[in-house]
Amino acid sequence: MTPDQYVNSVVQKHRLPETLDSYTSLYVVSPLKQIISNWAGVCLCETKLSGSRVKGTAIDLSTDLDLFISLSSTTQNSLKEIYDSLYSRMVDEGITARKQNVSIGVTYQGKKVDLVPAKRQGQYGNDHSLYKRKADSWTKTNIDTHISRVRQSGRITEIAALKIWRENHNLEFPSIYLECFAINSLYGRSLNAPAENFMYLLRDIRDNIQTRRIIDPANTNNVLSDELSQMEKKSLGIAAQQSLAAPYWGDIIW
C-alpha cells in the first residue's frame, strides 16, 4: 500500500457521511429541535445542521453532529444569558450537557451533539453573534462562509486526516482553526498528494503553529489562532515533531 493509499484508507474508515441516517434524524435531531423550539419560542429563526457534517470533514472519533441555533436579532437576552439558559434547559431535560467554548455539548440517544446558539446581527443575512465562554466575550460569525470556505478548498481529505491525527493523539485544536490552518498551509500545493500534504502540514505545525496568525474568513477581527494558549500550541508542535519522527504511518494516524 502506498502512503497515499494508506491516508485515503484511514480517512475513509473514519469519515462520516454528510447526510444523517434515519435513526439520527428521527430519534436525535427531531427531539432536540423540539426541545430547542420550546426553549426559544418566538425568538427562534431556525435550527440547522452545521459544522463538519455539512463541510464534508466529519469523522467518527469526535462530535457526531453540530446544530446551529439561529435566534432573532430582536431577542432581548444577552448572548451569555442565551448560552447559560440553553445549558440549563438541557440539564432540566435530563440530558447530559457540558459547557464548551461557543457550543454546548450534549449526549443524546448515544450521539454527541454540539449545540451552537447565536443571535442574528440583523433582520436579513447570515451574520450572527456568538458567545465565547472562555473569554467571556462575543464574536461575529457566518457559518455559511465557513462551510463554503472548506467545501471549495479542495482539501477535504487532508483536513479529515488532520482531525483524525488530533483525536488519535488527544490534542486540543478547534476545528475551524484547524481547517483554516490547513487550507492556508497547503495553498498552491498539489490537490492529489494527500500523504505528502499531510506530512507538510505536520512540518508546518511543528515550525509555525506558535507564531502564525489565522484569521476567521467570516470575520477579520476574529483571530482563530488566539483560541489556543501558547502552551496548547507548543503541545501541537511537539506532537507533530513526534509524528514526523515515527517510523511507520500506522504510528501517525490509524
What is the fold's blueprint, element by element?
Elements: H1 3-14, H2 22-40, E1 44-50, H3 52-55, E2 65-71, H4 79-92, E3 96-99, E4 104-108, E5 111-120, E6 128-132, E7 137-141, H5 143-151, H6 156-168, H7 175-185, H8 194-208, E8 215-216, E9 219-223, H9 230-244
Parallel strand pairs: 2-5
Antiparallel strand pairs: 1-2, 3-4, 4-5, 5-6, 6-7, 8-9
Describe this structure in words.
There is one protein chain. Helix 6 crosses helix 7 and helix 8 packs across helix 9. The protein has nine helices and nine strands. Strands 1, 2, 3, 4, 5, 6 and 7 form a seven-stranded mixed sheet that branches. The chain has a two-stranded antiparallel sheet with strand order 8-9. By secondary structure, the chain is an alpha+beta fold. Helices cover 44% and strands 20% of the residues.
Mean pLDDT: 97
Proportion of β residues? 15-25%
**Strand-pairing-aware structural class:** alpha+beta
Number of helices: 9
What is the rounded Rg? 19 Å
Q: Which series of helices and strands comes N to C?
A: HHEHEHEEEEEHHHHEEH
pLDDT under 50 segments (min length 5)?
none
Short account of what is shown:
The protein is of the alpha+beta class and 254 residues long.
Which features characterize this protein?
seven-stranded mixed beta sheet, 44% helix, 254 residues, 9 strands, alpha+beta
